[in-house]
Structures are given as C-alpha cells and as structure tokens.
Specification:
The protein is an alpha/beta fold. The protein has helices at 56-60, 126-129, 171-178, 226-229, 254-267, 297-312, 328-345, 387-394, 401-414, 416-422, 476-521; strands at 5-11, 44-48, 63-65, 85-89, 93-97, 103-107, 113-117, 148-155, 161-164, 196-202, 205-211, 238-244, 287-292, 316-319, 366-372, 380-386, 430-433, 443-446. A hairpin with a 2-residue loop joins strand 10 and strand 11. The strands form 4 sheets. A 6-stranded mixed β-sheet has the order 10-11-9-12-13-14, sandwiched between helices. GTP binds at residues 165-172, 190-194, 211-214, 321-323. Residues 159-340 form the OBG-type G domain. Residues 1-158 form the Obg domain. This is GTPase Obg. Belongs to the TRAFAC class OBG-HflX-like GTPase superfamily. OBG GTPase family.
Length: 522
C-alpha cells in the first residue's frame, strides 16, 4: 500500500533526575555529597533513507516516543542517556507543523538528518550543586521533559518530468516503455492508485519520470484522487501532457482533455515554502504534448486533425505509441532537452552561512507581564516568561524546602524580583512562572520579596540620581516608612505560613492518633 501523507505524534525522552546522596565510608563521617547527574533523554530523529519508499509504517503506528534518561545514583554515578529513536523516511519528505502548517524540514537529499523532538536535559545531582557556600546540598534537580507535539509528513516525488493526463491515457505504459520500471498495467475503468517512477537515459542525460495519476476535472478542489497526488508534480522541472487519441468515452477529445488538465494545474496552489522546489506555478513550467496510442488507426486519424491546433498554441507535439514504441526515442530526447535546460537555469545552491546573533547588553532573558484576572489575588497577577526561569521551575522539586530556596536565590540573582517590583508587585501578589499549557503546567505562588537597601529603591533613568531631583524627592522618613511597611508585610506573610504549617502538623498528628486508637481497640 502506498501512503504519501501521515500524521506523526512524537515525543522526546525525559531527562533523568539528579541524585541527592552523601558519601558514607568508615572513618569518613564528612564524606560530602556524591549524587550523580541524570542522563539526557533520547531524541526523535528523521533520516532520509534510499530504501524507504512510502510512509505506510507511520500511517499504521503514528505514536513514537524516544527512551528516557536514567536517573543518577550515589558514588558520583551519572545516569545513562536515553537512546535516540531514528525514523527512516523516503527522500523528498516534507515535515510540517500540524497546528499551523509551517514547514519544519525538507528532506530532499538521501542521508539528511533532522532532530524532530529533542530529549529533555538531565537534572544535576547534589555533587554538581555543591559550592564553597553550599557544601552539602540536600537536594538535586529534576530532569526536564522532552519536546512533544504533532507533525505532518508529506511525501513529494523527486522526479524531473511529470506525466499528467486523464485516467487510462497510457501514462503507466509510457513509464514502462521508457524505463526499466514495471508498473501494473491493465484496462482498468479507474485510475492508478500509486505514482510510478522510472529512470530514463537519453544520450548523456539521466532523469526521472513520474506517472502522476488521478487527475480529473475538479481534482484541484478535492474531487477524486487528484488533490492527493498533485503534490508529486511540485518538484518536477517539466510537464508532459499525455492525451488519449483512442478513447471511446463520449464527450472527450484530446483538445478538451488538455484544457481540463491545464485548468486543474493552474488552480492548484504550489507550496513554495519548502526548499529545493522549482518555485514556478505548474502552468508556467516547460510543457510537451504527447498524442498517445498511435498504434490504433482511429487514433492516428484524430491526431492528424488536432495536431495543427496544438502547434498553433505554441506547443511541441509528439506522436507516440507505447505498444509499437513509435516516437519513444524522440520523446526521450525531447524530455532530456527540457531537463537539461531546467538544470542549467537552476540557481547554484547557496553556501551555508553561519549567522551570529549576539545577545544584547540589556537583554535579561525573561519578561514580566501584568495580567488582569478575576480569579487572581486583588484581580491582578504577574506572569514571568523566559527560558531560564521556566527551565529552573521544571527542574525544582517543590517537596524539598531547600530546593525551593535554591530556586528563589536563582530567580533573585537573575533579576526577576527587581522586575516584579518595577511592575508594581507587592508582598502577597500572585506570581505565575511559565505558560498554562506547559507539559508540567505553570507554577503559581504568592510573592514574598526579600528586603532591599535604600539605594536599590532609587528608580530613575540611567545616569541620573533621583535624590538630586528637586521635585518628587522622597524624604528619609518616607523611605524608612516604606521599608517598614515591607518588613511588616513580610512578617504577616511569614506568620500566615507558620500558622498554616502548624495547622497541617496538628491535623496530621490527630490523624495518626486516631489510627493508633483504632488499632488498640482492635
């Protein structure tokens, strides 16, 4: 079965968690931390392979997940990285985002390797987190989840010449007569269901001919199978119209067939986003007209009638018979001329350029946005977005108080706290880090700012000192009062947290006592 389109659900492996361990050995009571790092998760990769000819494998099994990384262990043993999952696809496969149709990759050449779903990074163990100030960390970082999403694989034949025409016009017979390909040929009342490829040699030129089936009136609008196979014409340099001069269907003749097929090619929107395609609309590409089945006497008579009209339109016309091989040599050399001209006119491939985008001096790597929300505290929440804050949140074990404190120190050092203060956040304000649709969700907490000195409270343009401005300058008493208000707010927040923890401990103790009393009665 031939499948040229498949929706793939891929997910990279998750990174292994870091290990929090302490070295234990006789006569060494202070061995220090020795927790190893977690291994990186495996990635899902696509490779263009010459042995692959269809996407049938991914049509039946669309869910693909790479292996997870192993967690770290004690004695400084790092976890093993997850093995990459390599998916082999035919050359000419285009990878698109399933959500917006954006082209992610175009695997034109055999051997092209693309990382489709990168694996998550492994978490650091407590040995890697130890510093001169934090000599024995009692926590480790968690591994990150791998990327997951849906992509669309579309196969576009890598052919130089496309044979187009109505069903039963003899396109498959021409491919079999011109090349070593042997497609299944019979007097079907329907069209071929598989595009057939054949390699043709004419003099010094070697090119690929494709039989594109399923073209009928209305194909560009989805009628029949034409829309499914028109994508196989996009990469071709020339188009050959195969006109059946021996058809017995009423209302059909070579001129009307040509007009119908040209109209469908003109209506089809060529995808110009992928790389490696000619880029011209289908109706503007070099064209040949083949009057087929000249071995039938009635066909030869009809060809003599319509040939002057076709040549009057400026078309090159050839009379061919696949059964008797009449005109096949002339047809092969005519197609070779078109292919050679297209190859000579093709622009030379541009050399890959390395683009350096240095980070701006004032770039912080994160943003703080004030959001109005009815369900937030005081109707306002502050959302923090950025690569580093979101990655740090994913790596934090929130069941460990020391790990949470480490996260707070990292955020403060990055400058998140200063930006929250500048955005108008106060003690107790609702702060969200990350997006709501993230794999592990966003982290929501009530902000508890650290105390800052008086010099850090001076906000003003660079190079200016607000204390020297005559108007609006706060007095020493006002600054002390603001600092005292912040201290009081922090004390109230801490008291509320302490009360909640005491209540949780009392509830847990009551539950344990009730359980032990029940066992005694039993």
């Amino acid at each position: 079965m031939f499948v040229d389109r498949a929706v793939l659900h891929v997910a990279g492996g998750s990174g292994g968690h870091g290990c929090a361990s302490v070295h234990r050995e006789k006569f060494k009571p202070l061995g220090g931390p020795d927790g190893g790092n977690g291994g990186r998760g495996g990635s899902v990769r696509l490779v263009a392979d010459a042995s692959a000819t269809t996407l049938l494998e991914y049509h039946h099994a669309p869910h693909r997940v790479a292996a997870n990384g192993r967690p770290g262990t004690g004695s400084l043993r790092h976890g093993a990285s997850g093995e990459d999952l390599v998916l082999r696809v035919p050359a000419g496969t285009v990878v698109k985002d399933a959500a917006d149709g954006r082209v992610l990759a175009d695997l034109v050449d055999v051997g092209t390797d693309v990382e489709l779903a990168p694996g998550g990074a492994g978490g650091l163990g407590n040995a890697a987190l130890a510093t001169t100030r934090r000599k024995a960390p009692g926590f480790a970082l968690l591994g990150e989840p791998g990327w997951s999403g849906d992509v669309v694989l579309e196969l576009k034949s890598l052919a130089d010449v496309a044979l187009v025409g109505f069903p039963s016009a003899g396109k498959s017979s021409l491919v079999a007569a011109l090349s070593a390909a042997r497609p299944k040929i019979a007097d079907y009342p329907f069209t071929t269901l598989v595009p057939n490829l054949g390699v043709v040699v004419a003099g010094q030129e070697r090119f690929v001919v494709a039989d594109v089936p399923g073209l009928v009136e209305g194909a560009s609008e989805g009628r029949g199978l034409g829309l499914e196979f028109l994508r196989h014409v996009e990469r071709t340099a020339a188009i050959v119209h195969v006109l059946d001069c021996a058809t017995l269907e009423p209302g059909r003749d070579p001129l009307s067939d040509l007009e119908v097929i040209e109209a469908e090619l003109a209506r089809y929107a060529v995808d110009l986003t992928a790389t490696g395609e000619p880029g011209l609309p289908l109706e503007q590409r070099p064209t040949l007209v083949v009057l087929h089945k000249m071995d039938v006497p009635e066909a030869r008579e009809l060809a003599e009638l319509v040939r002057p009209d076709l040549e009057a339109r400026g078309l090159e016309v050839l009379e061919v018979s696949s059964a008797s091989h009449e005109g096949l040599r002339e047809l092969s050399f005519a197609m070779a001329r078109l292919v050679r001209r297209a190859r000579e006119q093709a622009p030379a491939p541009a050399a890959p350029r390395v683009v350096l985008r240095p980070r701006a001096v004032d770039e912080t790597g994160f943003t703080v946005v004030r959001e109005e929300a009815e369900d937030a505290t005081d109707g306002v929440r502050f959302r923090v977005r950025g690569t580093k804050p979101e990655r740090w949140v994913r790596q934090t074990d929130f069941s460990n108080d020391e790990a949470v404190g480490f996260l707070a120190d990292r955020l403060a050092k990055l400058g998140v706290e200063d930006d929250l203060f500048a955005a108008g956040a106060v003690a107790g304000s609702e702060v969200v880090i990350g997006a709501d649709d993230a794999p592990r969700g966003a982290v929501v907490f009530d902000w508890d700012p650290t105390l800052v000195g008086g010099a850090e409270l001076l906000a003003g343009p660079r190079g200016e000192d607000a204390r020297l401005a005559g108007e609006g300058r706060r007095t020493t008493q006002e600054r002390r009062r603001e600092q005292a208000e912040r201290k009081d707010a922090r004390a109230r927040t801490q008291a509320e947290l302490d009360a909640e923890r005491r209540e949780e401990r009392r509830a847990a103790a009551a539950g344990r006592s009730a359980g032990s009393g029940g066992r005694d009665r039993a």
